[in-house]
Amino acid sequence: xxxxxxxxxxxxxxxxxxxxxxxxxxxxxxxxxxxxxxxxxxxxxxxxxxxxxxxxxxxxxxxxxxxxxxxxxxxxxxxxxxxxxxxxxxxxxxxxxxxxxxxxxxxxxxxxxxxxxxxxxxxxxxxxxxxxxxxxxxxxxxxxxxxxxxxxxxxxxxxxxxxxxxxxxxxxxxxxxxxxxxxxxxxxxxxxxxxxxxxxxxxxxxxxxxxxxxxxxxxxxxxxxxxxxxxxxxxxxxxxxxxxxxxxxxxxxxxxxxxxxxxxxxxxxxxxxxxxxxxx
Length: 280
Prior knowledge:
Layout: E1 3-7, H1 14-29, E2 34-38, H2 43-52, E3 68-71, E4 74-78, H3 79-87, H4 91-95, H5 104-117, E5 120-121, E6 124-125, E7 130-131, E8 134-135, H6 136-161, H7 164-167, H8 169-245, H9 250-279
Parallel strand pairs: 1-2
Antiparallel strand pairs: 1-3, 3-4, 5-6, 7-8
């Protein structure tokens, strides 16, 4: 299979030239064999390209522009579809070629195949081998159905042999445990409520004690300055009494009597001239 790329070597459009270079460069990077066919110098190539491009892929004017890509006689697409395949890592699928082993496109194709058909072992797909007219999946389903029927039969036989009271023993014990659990739950709730009430009372008592202590300390603080004032007044009174009770010495008494006599003499001297004047 040969990939044919129809080009215009003497095109005046830079956009067309760039698209042609992108296609050829990418094919060379992938090491894909291709044959460039010039439509500018070969009329046969131009006519063949225009006739073999599908009608739905042609533009409104009916003349397809290069580059156009073919795989032998089958149409692959134009630059836009080639670019989309390049972005999706599906260029080999676009060209109709098998991807090389180990390439990203080959790995993605293998994953897609496994998702659709299941894992592959020894070159064959699982669940595709047929034995005795049925495949493995059907055999497994039949075996599972038989096992389920056997289990149901065993359960029915046990129910018939065991009395209903013993058969329902587990359910009865569950009900009793549920009732006991309910009672214990209520008792636990009551105990928790009592503990909460006791804790609240304890907290209230501690708060009252703190308030009493604070009031006593405040009272002591107010009494302290009053006691200090009273003590200071008592000290002052004692000092005053001490001064009054202090004994007077003989020297002090003599000084006092002398002062009194001097005062009397002065008074007499002052009165003497007044009396003389009066007598005259």
